[in-house]
Amino acid sequence: MSVTRTGASAVSDDADPRRWWGLVIIALAQLMVVLDATIVNIALPSAQHDLGISDNNRQWVITAYTLAFGGLLLLGGRIADLVGRRRTFVIGLIGFAGASALGGAATTSGMLFGARALQGVFAAVLAPSALSLLTTTFTHPKERGKAFGIYGALAGSGAAIGFLAGGLLTEYLNWRWCLYVNVPVAVIAVFGGLALLRGRPGHTGARLDIPGVVLGCGGLVALVYGFSEAEPRGWTDPLVLSLFAVGVVLLAAFVWWQTRASQPLLPLHIVRDRTRAGCFLTMCLAVIGMFGLFLFMTYYLQVVLGWSPLKTGLGYLPLTAATIVGSTQISARLLPRVAPRLLMVPGSVLASGGMVILTQMTVHSAYATEIMPGLVLMGLGMGLTFMPVFATATAGVAPYDSGVTSATVNTSQQVGGSIGTALLNTVATAGGTAYVAAHLRNPAEKALIVREGMVHGYTVAIWWAAGVLLLAGLAAGLMVTAKPPAYGPARAPVPEEVRRARFP
């Protein structure tokens, strides 16, 4: 292989000359997937009104997507290995566009929930393919670092773009365009992917762990559904307790099966590492609080304070800006010099402090002095936490484990979002209902009492979220033991279970 050298770097002559345009297509697809977890937050009050969705069920617009996404993400990575990355990438884009069109045309709540779940299914196919294509397209270390930096910056901006795009589309068109907008984006990405990305054959020896998918995804669905039914039925209702029991049993069976499967969905040596397991747990707990906040603040700003969708989207900008600063200007600079947990623990505590500030909000709170400070602290804390979690969880991993490790980090994020949205929505609805029942004495004050009840329910749930964020900090402090710099390259012998499960 001939090599061209420029200074200290060496780049192969046979490197794809279109690789940087390919990066644009890959990043565009990943941005669409990340954006869709937040774009519907702004549109949710309008969609709830149009389709007659109950307060208890509204969380399924978000949870149906994150649950399907997180539950099937590991399977999506295996499918990419089996079918081929570019082919899976294109299939994921086409399916995502179709599901988005179906959701935009929804005439019932069930149709919208189903479309969002279908979006999650195809997102689980698309996201691992995009990351794998990026890995195989950029092989030179210097170029790979630059490509991953661009990719991470674009993917990380998905939340901000989602809130702004959701506000613009909802206000000037309608909420359905928050889903329809994915169709032209996906079409561009499909043609760009076919023209610019190199196709590689799949691994004929790869096998799908279908029992693992059924057990793992089934257990997660049972748990989330149990949380969502706890509010209307009560925590001690037989159905709720049965759902929790079934969820625990299925997840325990999933762990058992992963020790027996020849090609497991989640090789258990990935999570046996104490630091890596601590990163997964920290991510899951932190996202439980974050997703709950997005849901409540959207309703607070639009329904209680009467803001427009666009103004609501702009209201999230301080949180997004603080997250970017915490991640790129603080964590990225300090991580090479300090142990990861010295960033994760203060970050979780800072985010929890921001939540505590938000528990003081009332129906008449001023945004600039009572809401924005909490959002800024929350954003800084998340930036300090998420960046070292991603870097530490994926550092020093052997090449044959890099894909499944990345998928596991993303899975813990999506599962945390699913559980957090369902759990905290249940807590908020129950708290608001109890407040109205206890304080409504004069029918003439009903409108005010209902608004106060909504805010009371939100603050109770935010207290829970603050506690969960402290648990995230505790998990990071006790389990993440990596020293700076986080793991070096893996040197240990390949475990026997890996040799048996590794694809040819």
Automatic annotation (TrEMBL):
Stated name of the protein: MFS transporter
Domain annotation Major facilitator superfamily (MFS) profile: ranges: 22-485
Main localization (coarse): membrane
NCBIfam families to which the protein is assigned, alphabetical: efflux_EmrB (TIGR00711)
Entry keyword set: Antibiotic resistance, Cell membrane, Membrane, Transmembrane, Transmembrane helix, Transport
TM regions (residue ranges): 20-40, 60-77, 89-111, 117-136, 148-168, 174-196, 208-227, 239-257, 278-301, 342-363, 375-398, 419-440, 460-481
CDD domains: MFS_MMR_MDR_like
Localization, UniProt: Cell membrane
Keyword Cell membrane (UniProt): yes
Top-level taxon: Bacteria
Record keyword Metal-binding present: no
Membrane topology: Multi-pass membrane protein
A Pfam family this chain is assigned to: MFS_1
Coiled-coil positions: none
InterPro entries assigned: EmrB-like, MFS, MFS_dom, MFS_trans_sf, Sugar_transporter_CS
